[in-house]
Amino acid sequence: MRKPYIAGNWKMNMTPSQGAAFAKDLAKALEGSDVKVMIAPPFVTIPAVLEAVKGSNLIVAAQNMSDNLSGAFTGEVSALMLKDLGVNDVILGHSERRAIYGETDEFINKKVLLALSEGMNVDLCVGETLEEREAGKLEEILTRQVEIGLRGVSAAQMANITIAYEPVWAIGTGKTATPEDADNAHAFIRTLVEKLYTKGVAEELIIQYGGSVKASNVKALMSKEHIDGALVGGASLSVEQFLPIVSFDK
Ligand code: PGA
Q: Can you give the pTM of this predicted structure?
């Protein structure tokens, strides 16, 4: 049985004080809930949020990290710094990192291996653009992103990997993939992981869907066989919108 895993990617939103207030409200609202929930604040907001959610089960993750552990890398944040704060989870390969900051599959893979070697959990994002989907390249793109993203990751380390399927055309656009389309892409990823590893690894893998997830569509998405969770952007920024997503099965 795969346990549902709902994540909120705050992107470049929420100052430390806003984030702390929000996280406190969220942690309170989630008291007693057994769904696995992660929130990913901007780096500088993380310490305030960690303090605000102390004692709760909320996972606080980073949205990115450096491909190096330390050194002359101006503007970067290392896994060692995150771990020192108590952050053990990181989102890598988000489509905004790929599209806006030019992160390649090879570069993302380097970060994935570094995070795993530091004992961190990785939420690896993959997904096609509209152009790629319309050109019939969905499977080719997913194969490349998954194969290269996971290159060198052992079967044992796959226990620390979550994959988020986020079709780029559905992110922040209000357009959601139909539950069927999303489920097909998830099934494709699961089969790919089975080929790269084992049936057992593929069956255990949590695959989140991301792209305009909201209270009104989460239930239909989560009812699909291969959709095990959600990576939520816009709708993760208010307790009113995020809570019904986390409580999709209520
Ligand atoms: P969205 O973002 O929910 O605002 O579409 C999802 C994401 O980018 O992770």
A: 0.97
Q: Let me know: does 151 contact 157? Beta carbons within 8 Å.
A: no
| Residue 94's CATH number | 3.20.20.70
Q: Look up 94 and say whether it is catalytic.
A: yes
Per-residue pLDDT reduced to its tens digit, 12-52 = 999 999 999 999 999 999 998 889 999 999 999 999 999 99
Q: Give the distance (Å) from ligand 1 centre to CA of residue 26.
A: 19
Hey, whose CA ends up nearest to atom 3 of ligand 1?
233
The closest residue, in CA terms, to atom 2 on ligand 1 is 233
Domain range for 10 is 5-246
Q: How far apart are CA 113 and CA 120, in angstroms?
A: 10
Token output for 152: 């060198």
> How many structural domains compose the chain?
1
* Contact (Cβ atoms closer than 8 angstroms) between residue 30 and residue 244: no
Give the model confidence (pLDDT) of 77-119 as tens digits. Answer: 999 999 999 999 999 999 999 999 999 999 999 999 999 999 9
